[in-house]
Amino acid sequence: MTEFRIHIFFIACLLVVCACTREEIPTGEERLYIRAASIDFTSEATATTRTANSGYLTSFEEGDTIGVTGIDANGNVLDVCNNVWFVYHSNEVVNGVVWSSFRNARGYGFVEKVKGARYFAYYPYDSKWNGKDLQYIIDHHEVLADQSTQQNFNRSDLMAPDEAIPPSEGELRFELKHKMATISLFYNSEWEPDGVTPLYHINLTSGTSPAGLTVAHTYRSPIGGGKYELRRRYLVDPGKNPTVKIVGYLEEESNRYFSKSLNIERGYLYSISFEGTPLVPYTDGVDLGLENVPFVDRDGQTTTLGHTVIWSKYNLGESLGENYPFDPAPSDRGARSGTRDSYARGDYYCWGATFTQYDNGLSGYTGYGYNNYFDNEYSLAPLGGTIKETEYDVAHAKWWRGKWRLPTENEFRAMYAGCTFERVTTYQESNQRYLGRATTPLTYSVIKVTSKQNGNSIYFSTGGYTDGTMEAQRDPEGNYTDSGDGKKNEGVKFTTTAYYLSSSASPTILRCVSYAYFDQNSQLIKVDGSRYTGMLVRPVYSPNEY
User: Fold this and answer.
1) Distance in angstroms (rounded) separating the CA atoms of residues 215 and 247
2) How far apart are alpha carbons 440 and 296 in whole angstroms?
């Protein structure tokens, strides 16, 4: 079983099709086709010091095995369908639904049909469950103490339906749900801003329950190049350990100790995030008093935030913790190491990336395009998901750290409803700080955003966006080169309009993100921004949202 990147999509299904056809069934014999679907971990807000609400996207991969068992009307296991072994074969999309195809040793994706019988499937297959019913398997499944390898982590998982089911139209369609809970640990000061140098460590000590939950026993997914995801994952059986206790300390300049107990349930992810010292002080933020301002959400419902939001006075790229690769031109706003310039545009980021758009993977000054975006399967926070306060939230996980994070779509909506927008000036800026050479300056606007509630103001630079390169790139014939997805390397576009990333994925387009789009005259939330598009970022934090 493969666990991909993080999202907050409640019950998002990855489903797969039996490759067998009805013509393959021997004449005169009645069979039931096996189709299985994996249902993701849902998410639960449970914090040690602060929580990142998120889930894990799961899917079957080649070699994964399930067992299928039939139960007769008296509750007895069927001899003709007693823990029958099937292995994952392929996947196919039919009518917009993806089902998982499994085949047995004979190459068939079906079992014998017995009148009045009900059936269940489970993952992963184990011969020790011969003759056992579903509840017995759930009650007696054992997680391994050491889950540091992918093999042990997968073996510790258990997916099964809620109950045995009758066949429907000659098929058995199993929705396999996680029967374990996942504890996910993330420390947002574990890496220096360069994304390479280890900084501090988490240490779990005696008193942690279950006792096997140690840092050495947690699983970290490899992401290539000898690097691993920052999240440490551990599966726990809520039937045997309904309460998990996290006890330990963080190694910083001085050790910071923590102890937290949480009640867990099957099928939930408990994502625990530890705060490190922020790189940017919280005094660099402004409260616009928007917590009780009514606004209309994406579903057309009138609501309020219900929590305070402190907005940074400037964009990412303008704090003292960040550095541009080159000195800016003398006429440009800001400086190489940031100046806390409220008017300056700052850096461009694509959604989920923790390095700048112009510095694609620290390998050159070409930004992301459709074909080289790091999440090009869009498994990170599918439709309606979020990267809020995860390692993919650039403000929270890397550059600013602490409680700083990306704004949500609704926090921008509350700003629109509770503030006035006024253009106060324009300025010109080149791309020299990104490219290291003189470039043609482009014109940007500065929008003053003033709260109708308390009169406080902040300033936003418009910045346009880029689908690839920071400056237009042409082929020998003078045509714009392709950045992918039918788009071109036209450099920074529409510089007098503000494009700001939110932490919210698009609710309707898988490869897109929700973003704030505004100038002095019009303020909109759009949901069609490609995830690889470079936009500006304005950090926020919520002191009373836990």
Assistant:
1) 11
2) 41
- Yes or no: say if 498 and 407 are a contact pair by the CB < 8 Å rule: no
Of the chain, the end-to-end C-alpha distance in Å amounts to: 32
Token code pair at residue 128: 């020790």
| Amino acid at the residue 11 | I
Q: Tokens 């993806």 identify what position?
A: 98
Q: What is the pLDDT of residue 331?
A: 87
| 335 C-beta neighbours (distance < 10 Å), count | 17
Per DSSP (E only), the strands in 179-276 are 181-187, 201-204, 222-224, 227-228, 232-236, 243-251, 256-263, 268-274
What single string gives the DSSP state of each residue in 160-188? E-SS-B--BTTEEEEEEEE-SEEEEEEET
* Tens digits of residue pLDDT in 330-374: 889 888 887 889 999 998 999 988 878 766 544 355 677 888 888
Q: Which tops the pLDDT comparison, 492 or 337?
A: 492
Q: What are phi and psi of 474, to 5 degrees?
A: -120, 155
Q: Give the SS3 label for residue 92.
A: strand
Helices in 35-147 by DSSP H: which ranges? 134-140
Cα Rg of the chain, angstroms: 26
Closest CA to 250 of 267, 274, 268, 233: 274
In angstroms, rounded to a whole number, what is the distance separating the alpha carbons of residues 235 and 155?
10
Are 515 and 502 in contact by the 8 Å Cβ rule? The answer is: yes
When pLDDT is averaged across residues 22-31 and rounded to a whole number, the result is 44
Q: What is the C-alpha separation between 348 and 356, in angstroms, rounded?
A: 6
Tens-digit pLDDT profile for residues 315-330 = 998 887 777 888 889 8
- Predicted pLDDT of residue 81: 92
CB contact at 8 A, 213 and 153 = no
Distance CA 181, CA 41 (A): 8
Antiparallel, parallel or unpaired: β 97-103 and 31-39: antiparallel
- According to the model, what pLDDT value does residue 32 have? 83
DSSP tag of 380: S
Buried b / exposed e over 401-422, threshold 16 CB at 10 Å, is: bbbbbbbbbbbbbbbbbbbebe
Candidates 138, 160, 256; CA nearest to 201 is: 256
Cα 300 from chain centroid (whole Å): 25
Q: Which of 349, 523, 515 is nearest to 423 (CA)?
A: 523
Provide, rounded to the nearest whole percent, the portion of the chain with pLDDT above 70. Answer: 84
- Helix, strand, or coil (residue 423): strand
pLDDT at residue 10 tops 80? no
- Whose tokens are 């939001």? That residue is 309
